[in-house]
Structures are given as C-alpha cells and as structure tokens.
Specification:
By secondary structure, this protein is α/β, with parallel strands linked by helices. The protein contains eight helices and ten strands. Strand 2, helix 2 and strand 3 form a beta-alpha-beta unit. Bound molecules: 2-amino-2-deoxy-6-O-phosphono-alpha-D-glucopyranose.
Length: 251
C-alpha cells in the first residue's frame, strides 16, 4: 500500500517526515533506521535533533544503516556521506556512533565491502523504516536507471545527470566521484516500511513516473509500487503532477 501525504512546503514536509521517524523510535526504541543523504532530508534531521535536545526523543538504542557512499572518499572527506551523516545528524544526537553504518568508500575490495554490507543489514533484520530521497531520474540510493533491478549492494557508475545534480555540493563537476557503493533493491525492499520524501518542482516528474508509471528499472523508484508499506511525503510542488492527474480524473 502507498500512502501519500501532501504538505504545503519543504518545512511542512520535513516536519511530517520527522514525526513519522520519531513515531517509529517511540514504537521501538531499539529500531533499525535506514537513512539517506542529499539536500532533501537535512531539515527532517534538524527536527529530530531539536526533539532529541529537548529530551523528547532518544536515539540511544537506535541502529542506523545508510543507503550509499561515494567510492574513493574517506569518511572524513567533507563530501562523503559518512561526513554528511555525522555533521547533519549523528554529532548532534545521543546515538552511539558504533551503531551507525555507512558503506566504506575506501574499502580495498569494494565488492567484498558490498557483500559484507548486505550481510550486516540482513543480520540486523533489515530496516524497520527506510528513509529515501529521490533522484531526478527516479534513482533511489544510487540505484540508477538500468535494464534490470539489482538486488545486492553493489558498485555503480553514476549517470551524468546524477553527477551534475550533485556537483553543487563539490567545487566543480569534475570533483564528483564517478562511482558509488549503494544498497540494492533487496535491502530497500526488505525494510518493513519505506518513507520517501520529495520536495520541489524538479522532483514532480520522477514522483509521477515512480508511482503512476510502469514498474521498470528505467525508473528505479517504481519498484516501490511492489512494497506493501510505503509512505510518500511530498510538498505541493513535488506532488504537482500527481495532483494534476487526480484533478483530471475527478473531472
Ligand atoms: C543522491 C543520493 C540519494 C538522494 C539523491 C537526491 O544521489 N545518493 O540518496 O536521494 O541524491 O538528492 P537531493 O535530496 O539532494 O535531491
């Protein structure tokens, strides 16, 4: 089942998403959260930090598994996803960092790292709640449009559109790594519940294709139509194409 929350703007989207994550932690204080990077979840994380600081939410027993990491970036590189998670969330909450996992972008044997990451996520019983952003081309994690869905955690070649989209975080596009390690669809679909967040007009097309289009690896997020518990939280701009469709149907 897919439930869609329409929120007015980015702030309301972030607040709604943070409430859903907090509810999961209240349900089970030792839950496993699958976490995401990118610009979309930053304000969601800010809400969680605020509630943690206020003493209303504790991450002391929470375990986290992140979706992906750039290949070749050290954990302390300021564009690595480990660094992102530390600075945007982990450094500001009461989580035990030993219980936070991000694929190692510097692993000598990246394929082995991927296999071990799958084993880790499986040993944790998969995520109770997997947070996802959405790429403009419909990618989730770094699962890029392809001819097939890949189940395992794997090394991917990033598409030019993803490199361009992420270039603003780097000094220039040439600095963006060309490869990444990403969870495959096995870990994502293994999560008990998936929470996908999207904001801004730039995501409207990808949201529409993911949830109204055919299930195809050309739009990786479309696989979520096969998951039995998906919550989409989007602002009005991101959901605009979905809304336009619904309004047309009503007429
Ligand atoms: C990157 C990440 C994804 C993220 C996507 C969208 O490619 N690997 O996990 O969802 O960017 O990012 P943004 O939220 O900045 O639009």
């Amino acid at each position: 089942m897919i439930r869609i929350y329409l929120e007015e703007d980015h702030a309301a989207m972030s607040r709604r998403a943070a409430h859903i994550i907090a509810a999961e932690i209240h349900r089970d204080p030792s839950c496993v959260l699958g976490l995401a990077t990118g610009s979309t979840p930053i304000e969601t994380y800010k809400n969680l930090i605020e509630w943690n600081k206020a003493g209303d939410l504790s991450f002391a027993d929470v375990t986290t598994v992140n979706l992906d990491e750039y290949k070749g970036l050290a954990p302390d590189h300021d564009q690595s996803y480990r660094y992102f998670m530390n600075t945007n969330l982990f450094d500001h909450i009461d989580i035990d960092k030993d219980n936070t996992f991000v694929p190692n972008g510097l692993a000598e044997d990246a394929d082995m790292e991927c296999a071990e990451y799958d084993e880790l996520v499986e040993s944790l019983g998969f995520a109770d709640l997997q947070l996802l952003g959405l790429g403009h081309n419909g990618h989730i994690g770094f699962n890029e449009p392809d001819t097939c869905f890949t189940k395992e955690t794997h090394v991917v070649d990033l598409t030019q559109s993803t490199i361009d989209a992420n270039a603003s975080f780097f000094e220039s596009a040439v600095d963006v790594p060309r490869q990444a390690l990403t969870m495959g669809m096995g870990c994502i679909m293994g999560a008990r519940r998936v929470l996908l967040i999207a904001s801004g007009e730039g995501k409207a097309d990808a949201i529409y294709k993911a949830f109204c289009g055919p299930i195809t690896p050309e739009c990786p997020a479309s696989i979520l139509q096969l998951h039995n518990d998906v919550v989409v939280v989007g602002d009005r701009a991101a959901l605009s194409k979905l809304l336009a469709e619904e309004l047309t149907e009503e007429v």
